[in-house]
Design brief:
Chain A has 276 residues and is mostly helical. In chain A, 76% of the residues lie in helices and 0% in strands. In chain B, α3 packs across α4. The chains are: A mainly alpha (276), B alpha/beta (253), C mainly alpha (294). At the A-C interface, α1, α3, α4, α5 and α6 of A face α1, α2, α3, α4 and α5 of C. The complex binds adenosine-5'-triphosphate and magnesium ion (MG).
Chain lengths: 276, 253, 294
C-alpha cells in the first residue's frame, strides 16, 4: 500500500514537472504571439520605407543594421585574434584559464555598465552621441560574447589536426591561418552571428551613446536611431499612431534576432554534420 | 525459490538486434554463470530481467520473461516490486551521491523495510551487508564519508552491499569482481557461494576460472544467440558446440 | 623563404597575443575607470551619502540604498518565480521527456534566450502591468500596475530560458548509470530524480541559479519599463521599485549638470559591475573546481 503511495507521488511529480514546462511554454508562446499580433498589422511597406518624420521606422532599422554591422565587424577584429591566442598551441593552461575568467567577468557585466563607461569616455573626450560612439560601445558588449564563442569553435577542432600539420613541418602561424581558421569557419561564423544578434537587440548600452533621431543616419558623427530604442521611446507616447511604430519595431527586431539565431544554428548543425 | 523463464526474447537497440530469439529456463537456486565474448549481449540480457532496458528509449524488447509465472513485460506489471525482488550489481559501480552508510540504507529505506525501521536497526543492517560484501573493516570508521571517496574496488563491493540490503530474491551481477584485488575477489566469491543456498544468482563473468570455481550452471552467449547451456560439470568437461569449445580454449574472447 | 615563414609565424603570434592583451586591458580599464570615477563618493561613506536612503541630488544627498534594495527585490522575486519552474521543467526534460522532445526544446531555448529585453518590456507594458493592476483591484490594493511584482514577473520570464538551458545541461551531465543504480533498487523515477539526480547535480544547479541572478541583477530596459521607478524602499509587491540599472538609465543626462552626481552614478555602475561580474566569476570557478574533482 505504501507502494501505491510512492507511485502516486511519482505521478504527481511528473504532472508538476510537465506542468512547469507547460507554463513556461505558454508564457513564451503568449509573448511571441502578442508581439506578432500587435506588430503585424503595422508592418506595412509604408512603415518600413518611411523614416521617423514620415511616420515609419526605416531610420531605426537602418540605424540598427549600421550599429550592429559596424560593431560586430569591430568586435571581430579583436575577438578573432584573441580567440586564436587562446588556442592550446598558443596559451599555456594557466593563461587560458585566467583569460576565461576575464571573459566571464566581461560577459557577465550588464550592458548598462558598458554604456555608462562609454558615456564617461565620451564626456571626457568631448564627443557627442553618435553612430560612431554607439558602434564603439556595442563592440564592447559584443567582444566577450564573440571571443567566448570563437574560443569554443577553435577548441572543438580535433587535436590531431595540430599534431598532423606540425608533423608536416608547418609553423603555428601557418596552421592557424591555413588549417584551423578554415576548419573552424562554421563555428566562427556562428559566433559572429550570435554576437550580432545579441548586439542588435541590446538597448541599454546605446541608450547613452548612440542617441536618438527621427532621420536616417547621415554620417558617423550624427546621432542614430535603433529598433530597441524606437520601441522604448515610442511606447511611452500616448499617441496610438506613434505607438504603432513601437509595435512594428518590436516585431521587426524580433524577426531579425530570431532569423539570425536560426541561421547560425542551421550553420552550426551543417558544420557538425560535415565534420562527422 | 524464484523461477525465471525467458521465452523467445528479442532485444534491439534501434535497428541493431542484440539478442535474438532467446529461450531459456533458468534453474532455481545456485549460481548461473553467463559467459560470452565482449559485446555478445550479456549485460543486455541481465538488464532485460529487471526491465532496466526501459530506460533507453530506442530499445525494443519482444517476447516475454516470466518471473514466478508472471510476465514482467505485461502491461501494468509492478516495476517496483520486480526490482525489489531482482537485485542488480552493475558492471561499473556508481556510488550514489551520499554517505557510505546511506548508500547501503538507500534501497531498504525506499521500500520501508523493517530492517531500517529505526537508527539502531539501520546501523545493524548496514554493518551486516557491508560485512557480507567484505567491505566493513575498511569503512567502519568513515561510514559518514561520501561514497565517492572510495576506491573503484571498494565501490564495487559497496554496490554489492547496497543491492543485498534491498533483500532481493534474485541477484543479477555484472562482472562484480572486475576491479577487485585477489583478496577482495576471494571475499566476494565466498559471499556468492554463501548466497547460492537461498538465492538465484546470475553472474556475468569474463574469467573462466571464476566460472569454474563458482558456477552450478552455465549459459554461453555468442553474438546474441544462446549457443549452449547446461550444468557446469557438463559444460566445462563436454562442450558440444564448436564455438563453445573455441571459447573454452581461449580462441575467442 | 625560411626567414619569411618565421616572420609570418611571429606576426600571427604577436597579433593574436596583442588582441588578447587588449581584451585583458579592456577589463582593467573598465574596472579602474569606474572605481576612479566613483572615488569621490566612495571616500565619503557617511550616512545620507552612498549607503543612505535619501536621494535628493539637488540637495547633495545621493543615497543608493533604495536602489540597491530595488535591484535586490526585483531580482530575488524574479528568481523565486522562475527558478522552481525552471528546475521542474529541466527535470521533466532530463528524466521523462523523449529524446525527440528534448532535441526540439533545446533550439527553442536558444531562440528564447536571444529575445531582446525591450521585447520583454513591451510585453510587460501591454499585458503584465494591466494584469497586475487588475489583480490589485481584485485584492483591494491600490496600484498602477507599474510595480515590483510586474518587474519580477517580466524578469522571471526573461531569465527562464537561460536558467532552464544551463540547468538542463547540468542534469544531462549526470551519468545514466547513476539513474540505473537507483531505479534498479526499486526507486521510482521521482525518487531517483529527487534523491540522486538533484543531489548529484546540486553544485551545477547552484551555479545555474547564481548566473541567472547575475544576469537578472544587471538587466535594465525590460525591468525599468514596468517597475515604476519611484525612489522609495520597496515595501509591497504592488508598490513601485527603482533598481540601480534603471537609475543609471534614467539620470545619466543629469550626470554633468549636478555636482557629485557623476560619482554617485558611477558608484551605482561599480556596484552593478562588481555584483554581476564577481558573481559570474565565482560561479565559473566553482564549476571548474567541480569538473576537476569529477
Ligand atoms: N545503449 C545502447 N545503445 C546501442 N547499442 C548498445 C547499447 N548498449 C549496448 N549496445 C550494443 O549491444 C551489444 C551488446 O552489448 P552488451 O553491453 O550487452 O555486451 P556485453 O556482452 O555485456 O559486453 P561486455 O562483456 O563488453 O560487457 C553491443 O554490440 C553494444 O554495442
Ligand atoms: Mg557487459
Amino acid at each position: 500500500m505504501s507502494r501505491t503511495r510512492r507511485c502516486r507521488m511519482d505521478r504527481l511529480a511528473r504532472w508538476a514537472m510537465g506542468g512547469a514546462l507547460g507554463i513556461l511554454g505558454i508564457a513564451f508562446a503568449g509573448l511571441l504571439l502578442s508581439v506578432v499580433m500587435r506588430g503585424l498589422p503595422h508592418l506595412r511597406p509604408s512603415m518600413l520605407l518611411a523614416d521617423g518624420q514620415g511616420g515609419g521606422i526605416a531610420h531605426a532599422l537602418v540605424g540598427s543594421l549600421c550599429l550592429g554591422a559596424g560593431a560586430s565587424v569591430l568586435a571581430l577584429l579583436l575577438a578573432l585574434p584573441a580567440a586564436v591566442a587562446l588556442q592550446r598551441a598558443y596559451a599555456p593552461p594557466r593563461i587560458a584559464e585566467a583569460a576565461a575568467l576575464v571573459l566571464d567577468l566581461l560577459w557577465g557585466t550588464p550592458s548598462i555598465v558598458y554604456g555608462a563607461f562609454a558615456f564617461l569616455l565620451m564626456v571626457w573626450m568631448g564627443v557627442r552621441t553618435s553612430l560612431l560612439a554607439g558602434i564603439l560601445t556595442l563592440a564592447l558588449v559584443m567582444v566577450p560574447v564573440m571571443t567566448r564563442a570563437m574560443t569554443e569553435a577553435f577548441r572543438s577542432l580535433p587535436p590531431e589536426l595540430w599534431e598532423q600539420a606540425t608533423a608536416l613541418g608547418a609553423t603555428r602561424g601557418e596552421i592557424t591561418l591555413k588549417v584551423a581558421l578554415r576548419q573552424a569557419l562554421p563555428g566562427l561564423v556562428t559566433a559572429f552571428l550570435l554576437a550580432f544578434g545579441r548586439g542588435i537587440g541590446d538597448a541599454a548600452s546605446i541608450l547613452f551613446t548612440a542617441g536618438y533621431t527621427d532621420r536616417l543616419p547621415g554620417s558617423l558623427m550624427d546621432p542614430v536611431a535603433s529598433l530597441p530604442l524606437e520601441v522604448f521611446y515610442q511606447l511611452a507616447t500616448p499617441d496610438p499612431t506613434v505607438q504603432s511604430r513601437a509595435h512594428a519595431a518590436a516585431l521587426l527586431l524580433l524577426i531579425l534576432v530570431l532569423g539570425v539565431t536560426l541561421i547560425s544554428r542551421a550553420l552550426a548543425r551543417r558544420a557538425s554534420r560535415h565534420r562527422l | 525459490m524464484t523461477h525465471i523463464h525467458i521465452k523467445n526474447l528479442h532485444v534491439a537497440y534501434g535497428s541493431h538486434t542484440v539478442i535474438e530469439g532467446l529461450d531459456l529456463e533458468i534453474p532455481d537456486g545456485g549460481i548461473v554463470a553467463i559467459l560470452g565474448p565482449s559485446g555478445c549481449g550479456k549485460t543486455t540480457l541481465l538488464k532485460s530481467l529487471n526491465r532496466l532496458l526501459d530506460l533507453h528509449e530506442d530499445v525494443t524488447v519482444r517476447g516475454s520473461v516470466l518471473i514466478d509465472g508472471e510476465d514482467i513485460y505485461a502491461p501494468g506489471s509492478d516495476l517496483l516490486a520486480l526490482r525489489k525482488k531482482v537485485g542488480f550489481v552493475a558492471q561499473r559501480p556508481f556510488p550514489l551521491p551520499m554517505s557510505i552508510h546511506d548508500n547501503v540504507a538507500f534501497g531498504a529505506r525506499l521500500h520501508e523495510l523493517p530492517t531500517v525501521a529505526d537508527r539502531a536497526a539501520t546501523s545493524g543492517t548496514v554493518e551486516r551487508h557491508l560485512r557480507r560484501a567484505g567491505l566493513w573493516e575498511e569503512v567502519k570508521h568513515r561510514l559518514d564519508a561520501p561514497a565517492k571517496g572510495l576506491s573503484i574496488g571498494q565501490q564495487q563491493r559497496l554496490s554489492l552491499a547496497r543491492a543485498l540490503a534491498v533483500e532481493p530474491e534474485v541477484i543479477l551481477a555484472d562482472e562484480p569482481t572486475s576491479a577487485l584485488d585477489p583478496l577482495s575477489v576471494r571475499i566476494v566469491e565466498a559471499q556468492f557461494r554463501a548466497l547460492r543456498q537461498d538465492y538465484t544468482v546470475l553472474l556475468v563473468t569474463h574469467i573462466l576460472r571464476q566460472a569454474r570455481r563458482l558456477a552450478d550452471y552455465v549459459i554461453f552467449l555468442y553474438d546474441g544467440h544462446l549457443v549452449e547451456h547446461g550444468p557446469a560439470e557438463t559444460f566445462f568437461n563436454a562442450p558440444v558446440d564448436p564455438r563453445t569449445q573455441a571459447y573454452l580454449h581461449g580462441e575467442i574472447s | 623563404m625560411r626567414v619569411d615563414r618565421r616572420w609570418g609565424d611571429a606576426a600571427v603570434t604577436v597579433l593574436a597575443r596583442g588582441a588578447l592583451f587588449l581584451v585583458f586591458g579592456l577589463a582593467l580599464v573598465l574596472g579602474l575607470t569606474l572605481l576612479l570615477r566613483a572615488c569621490p563618493m566612495l571616500g565619503s561613506l557617511e550616512r545620507s551619502t552612498l549607503l543612505g536612503s535619501a536621494w535628493a541630488p539637488a540637495q547633495g544627498s545621493f543615497g543608493l540604498r533604495t536602489f540597491l534594495a530595488g535591484s535586490l527585490a526585483v531580482t530575488v522575486l524574479a528568481l523565486g518565480l522562475s527558478v522552481p519552474l525552471c528546475l521542474l521543467s529541466a527535470l521533466y526534460l532530463s528524466e521523462h521527456a523523449s529524446r525527440r522532445l528534448r532535441e526540439r526544446v533545446q533550439p527553442v531555448l536558444d531562440v528564447a534566450a536571444g529575445v531582446p529585453s525591450v521585447v520583454f518590456g513591451l510585453f510587460g507594458v501591454m499585458f503584465v502591468v494591466p494584469g497586475v493592476a487588475a489583480l490589485g483591484r481584485l485584492l483591494g490594493v491600490p496600484t498602477t500596475g507599474y510595480s515590483l511584482l510586474a518587474g519580477g514577473l517580466v524578469l522571471a520570464l526573461m531569465a527562464a530560458p537561460f536558467t532552464l538551458s544551463v540547468a538542463l545541461d547540468v542534469l544531462l551531465a549526470v551519468p545514466m548509470g547513476l539513474r540505473e543504480t537507483a531505479l534498479a533498487m526499486g526507486a521510482t523515477r521521482w525518487e531517483t530524480a529527487w534523491h540522486v539526480v538533484l543531489r548529484e547535480a546540486r553544485g551545477g544547479l547552484l551555479v545555474a541559479v547564481v548566473m541567472g541572478f547575475a544576469r537578472a541583477f544587471g538587466e535594465t530596459l525590460a525591468v525599468m519599463m514596468v517597475v515604476g521607478n519611484v525612489a522609495v524602499l520597496p515595501t509591497s509587491l504592488f508598490g513601485p521599485a527603482y533598481p540601480l540599472s534603471a537609475l543609471l538609465a534614467n539620470t545619466y543626462g543629469e550626470m554633468m549638470s549636478i555636482p557629485r552626481m557623476e560619482g554617485a552614478l558611477m558608484s551605482a555602475a561599480l556596484l552593478l559591475f562588481l555584483a554581476t561580474g564577481a558573481v559570474s566569476c565565482a560561479a565559473t570557478l566553482v564549476l571548474r573546481r567541480m569538473r576537476r574533482l569529477g
